[in-house]
Every structure is written in C-alpha cells, then in structure tokens.
C-alpha cells in the first residue's frame, strides 16, 4: 500500500508540475524508487534474518521501517513531508469552479 501511495503521489506531483508549465526533469519527483529500494532492502533483511535464525520472522518488522524510512527522509529533505503524509488538497473540477463564481 505504501508503494501505491508513493506512485500516486508521484503522479499527482508530475501532473501539478505539468499544469504549472514548469520545465523540469521527469525524474524530479520519483518517490516510488525510494520506496521500492527500501522494500527490496527490507525483504532481503527479512529473508536473511529468517535463514540465519532458523525461525520464522515477522517480515513487517523489517519491511515497514526500511520502506517508510527513505520516503519520510526524502520528503522531509524536499519539504514535502506534510503533503505526502496528509495528502494534498483535492483537485477541484472546472464545473465546481464555475459554480463558485
């Protein structure tokens, strides 16, 4: 679910950038790659812990911090943590805007 959230956030940020007519690199907001990297690291760690201890390990113990950590740090460094955590304001449709006027 966190990877889906990161993908949706990337899509919304790229759509907002396109609507503001800014010329930026397409790889500017790619939170999905940070989340995916963290997921891979957490999965490898969970598998290694299971093999080394010869007992079942809760995978979420490794997956959640390793996936959430890079996302939170990267968004904090870009001053987008509150937008990522709380979600952006809902997009208003053109019909609603004309009704407000």
TrEMBL record:
A single GO molecular function term of this UniProt record: aspartic endopeptidase activity, intramembrane cleaving
InterPro entries the record matches: Peptidase_A22B_SPP
Any one of the GO CC terms: lumenal side of endoplasmic reticulum membrane
Coiled coil: none
Pfam families noted in UniProt: Peptidase_A22B
Domain of life: Eukaryota
Regions that span the bilayer: 31-52, 59-77
GO biological process, one term: signal peptide processing
Keywords, alphabetical: Membrane, Transmembrane, Transmembrane helix
Alphabetized PANTHER family for the sequence: SIGNAL PEPTIDE PEPTIDASE, SIGNAL PEPTIDE PEPTIDASE-LIKE 3
Record protein name field: Signal peptide peptidase-like
């Amino acid at each position: 679910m966190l990877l889906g959230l990161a993908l949706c956030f990337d899509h919304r940020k790229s759509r907002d950038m396109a609507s503001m007519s800014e010329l930026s690199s397409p790889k500017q907001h790619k939170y999905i790659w940070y989340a995916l990297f963290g997921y891979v690291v957490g999965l490898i760690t969970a598998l290694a812990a299971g093999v080394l201890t010869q007992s079942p390990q809760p995978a979420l113990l490794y997956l959640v911090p390793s996936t959430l950590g890079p996302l939170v740090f990267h968004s904090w460094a870009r001053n987008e943590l509150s937008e990522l955590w709380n979600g952006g304001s809902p997009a208003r449709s053109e019909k609603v805007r004309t009704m407000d006027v």
